C-alpha cells in the first residue's frame, strides 16, 4: 500500500515516502511484549459467533466507519473455520483462527496483526483490530453484522458517474501534495478501482455511489482505507473560487490517524512520472555493495556471492508489513520458480519494524513460507526509507517499498524501479509485469 502522509503524523516515516505501504504506526522494537497483552489462544472447535456467511465488518477510527466485507466458511465437517476478506475482486484467505472461551483471534495473513472478536448477539460480532508490531499495541474498534453485502448505504437518487480515469492530487494536512491517477469502474451504484501514485497503488478499493457522493474502502489486514468524494464543491460554496466542471473533492482516511484531502478531474490520458527515473545510482557508482544476514541463522547474502556470479540478479527491497510488497512477491515467487533455470536470481532485502534481527527473520520466514517464496531473503534493516537508503549507499535514495533493482551478469546496476502497480490496478499491473519480463529477458540475452 501507499501512505505518504505528512511527517507530522505517526505514519510519516514509513508512509508518505513509501507509497502504498505504510505502517500506520512508527517503527518498533518488536512484538513479543505486545502479544503478551493480547494472547492468541489454542483452537478448541468452531468459534462462538463466527458463523458461515457474508459479513459486513466496520472499523471505527477518526470519527469514520471504514467498512469491509468478509466471508466465513468451514472445513473438516464444519469444525475448522476460514475467513476470506473481500476487497473488490480480491480474496484474502485467513486460516489461522484460534479460540479460548468467548474470544476468537483471526490472524491477518502474513501481517503481524489480528482481529480479536467475540459474539455480540445473534448475527453480530464485536472486537478489535490489533497490530502487534507498534511501539504500543495498535487497536481499532471492530463490529460486524452477518448478512449485509453492501459496503455503503445508497438512496433512490440517480447515481452520478465516476467511471473512468482521473487526474488526482492528494494533499496532506501539512500542505504537501503529490500526484496520482484514479481508475474507477462503475455499474449502477457499485464502484471498484484504485489510485496509482509514483510509489505504488492503494490496491483493491470497492464501494458505492449515492447521488453525487462516492465512497470506497478496503481492509487487507495491514491497512484500513476510506476514500470519500463529492462531485462538485459541497455547500456552502466559496464564491471567491472558480470550480472546473466535473471536479471531485474528497477525503482520504487511513487507520487511526492518517488523513489527506484530494481533488480529481477526468483525464483519459492521466499518467505518472516514469517509475524508472525517480531514483538511481549516485555519480561514479555502478554496483551494489552489501552483505546482510540471511533470515536463516548463520548465513549471509551478498551479490558478490558465488551463487550469483554470471547471473542476472533482481534485488527486491521489501517489508513483510507492506501489502504492495506482498503484491510484488506474489508475482515474483511463481515467476522465479518458472525462470530460475534460465540464469536469473532474486534477492529479497527485508526491512522490518524491529531492530532485532532474530525477530525480523521470524517475520520474513513466515512471509516466505506463506507466499511460497523460493529465492533468498535477508534482513537488511528497519522499515523506513531513510534506513533503506543508508543501507544501500550506492543509490541516490530509496523512495518506496517495494523498490526493484536489476543487476546484469557482471553485477552492474542497470535499472532501479520505484514502487509496484499491483493486480488491483488492472491494465497497469499487466504493463508492470510485462516490463519486468522484458527487462530480465534483455539482460539475459547480453
- What structural class do helix, strand and pairing data support? mainly beta
Which range best describes the helical content: under 10%, 10-25%, 25-40%, 40-55%, 55-70% or over 70%?
Answer: 10-25%
Proportion of residues in β-strands: 35-45%
CATH architecture of the domain at 292-445: 3-Layer(aba) Sandwich
Structure notes:
The protein has 446 residues and is mainly β. Among the domains are: 31-146, Lipocalin; 292-445, Glutaredoxin. The protein contains five helices and 25 strands. The strands form four sheets. The protein has a nine-stranded antiparallel sheet, with no helix packed on it. Strands 10-11-12-14-15-16-17-18 form an eight-stranded antiparallel beta barrel. It has a five-stranded mixed sheet with strand order 23-22-21-24-25. A hairpin with a 5-residue loop joins strand 6 (103-107) and strand 7 (113-119). The longest helix is centred in the C-terminal third of the chain and has 19 residues, at 427-445. It is globular.
List the helices and strands and how they pair.
Elements: H1 32-37, E1 53-61, E2 64-75, E3 80-87, E4 90-94, E5 97-100, E6 103-107, E7 113-119, E8 124-131, E9 138-146, E10 164-172, E11 177-187, E12 190-197, E13 200-201, E14 205-210, E15 213-219, E16 224-231, E17 248-254, E18 258-266, E19 292-293, E20 300-301, E21 312-318, H2 323-339, E22 344-352, H3 357-370, E23 376-382, H4 385-391, E24 403-407, E25 413-418, H5 427-445
Parallel strand pairs: 21-22, 22-23
Antiparallel strand pairs: 1-2, 1-9, 2-3, 3-4, 5-6, 6-7, 7-8, 8-9, 10-11, 10-18, 11-12, 12-13, 12-14, 14-15, 15-16, 16-17, 17-18, 19-20, 21-24, 24-25
Amino acid at each position: 500500500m501507499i501512505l505518504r502522509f505528512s511527517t507530522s503524523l505517526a505514519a510519516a516515516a514509513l508512509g508518505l515516502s513509501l507509497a502504498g505501504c505504510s505502517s500506520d504506526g512508527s517503527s518498533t522494537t518488536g512484538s513479543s511484549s505486545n502479544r503478551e497483552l493480547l494472547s492468541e489462544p489454542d483452537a478448541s472447535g468452531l468459534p462462538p459467533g463466527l458463523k458461515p456467511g457474508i459479513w459486513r465488518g466496520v472499523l471505527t477510527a477518526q470519527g469514520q466507519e471504514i467498512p469491509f466485507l468478509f466471508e466465513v466458511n468451514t472445513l473438516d465437517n464444519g469444525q475448522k473455520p476460514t475467513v476470506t476478506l473481500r476487497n473488490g475482486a480480491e480474496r484474502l484467505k485467513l486460516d489461522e483462527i484460534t479460540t479460548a472461551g468467548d474470544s476468537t483471534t483471526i490472524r491477518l495473513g502474513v501481517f503481524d496483526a489480528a482481529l480479536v472478536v467475540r459474539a455480540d448477539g445473534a448475527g453480530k460480532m464485536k472486537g478489535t483490530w490489533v497490530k502487534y508490531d507498534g511501539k504500543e499495541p495498535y487497536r481499532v474498534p471492530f463490529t460486524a453484522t452477518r448478512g449485509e453485502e453492501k459496503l455503503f448505504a445508497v438512496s433512490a437518487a440517480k447515481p452520478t458517474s465516476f467511471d473512468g480515469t482521473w487526474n488526482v492530487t492528494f494533499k496532506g494536512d501539512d500542505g504537501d501534495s503529490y500526484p496520482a491517477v484514479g481508475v474507477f469502474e462503475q455499474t449502477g451504484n457499485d464502484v471498484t478501482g484504485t489510485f496509482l501514485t509514483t510509489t505504488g497503488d492503494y490496491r483493491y478499493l470497492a464501494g458505492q455511489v449515492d447521488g453525487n457522493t462516492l465512497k470506497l474502502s478496503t481492509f487487507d489486514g495491514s491497512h484500513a482505507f476510506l476514500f470519500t468524494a463529492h462531485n462538485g464543491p459541497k455547500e456552502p460554496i466559496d464564491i471567491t473560487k472558480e470550480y472546473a466542471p466535473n471536479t471531485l473533492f474528497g477525503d482520504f482516511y487511513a487507520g487511526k490517524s492518517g488523513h489527506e484531502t484530494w481533488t480529481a478531474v477526468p483525464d483519459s490520458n492521466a499518467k505518472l512520472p516514469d517509475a524508472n527515473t525517480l531514483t538511481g545510482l549516485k555519480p561514479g557508482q555502478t554496483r551494489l555493495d552489501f552483505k546482510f544476514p540471511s533470515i536463516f541463522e548463520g548465513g549471509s547474502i551478498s551479490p558478490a556471492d558465488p551463487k550469483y556470479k554470471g547471473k542476472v540478479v533482481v534485488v527486491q527491497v521489501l517489508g513483510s508489513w507492506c501489502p504492495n510488497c506482498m503484491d510484488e512477491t506474489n508475482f515474483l515467487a511463481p515467476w522465479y520458480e518458472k525462470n530460475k533455470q534460465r540464469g536469473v536470481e532474486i534477492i529479497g532485502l527485508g526491512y522490518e519494524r524491529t531492530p532485532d534481527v532474530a525477530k525480523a527473520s521470524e517475520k520474513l520466514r513466515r512471509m516466505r513460507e506463506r507466499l511460497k517464496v523460493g529465492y533468498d531473503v535477508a534482513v537488511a534493516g528497519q522499515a523506513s526509507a531513510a534506513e533503506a537508503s543508508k543501507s544501500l549507499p550506492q543509490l541516490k535514495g530509496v523512495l518506496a517499498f517495494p523498490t526493484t533493482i536489476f543487476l546484469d551478469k557482471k553485477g552492474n546496476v542497470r535499472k532501479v524501479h520505484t514502487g509496484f502497480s499491483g493486480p488491483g490496478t488492472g491494465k497497469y499491473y499487466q504493463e508492470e509485469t510485462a516490463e519486468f519480463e522484458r527487462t530480465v529477458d534483455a539482460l539475459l540475452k547480453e
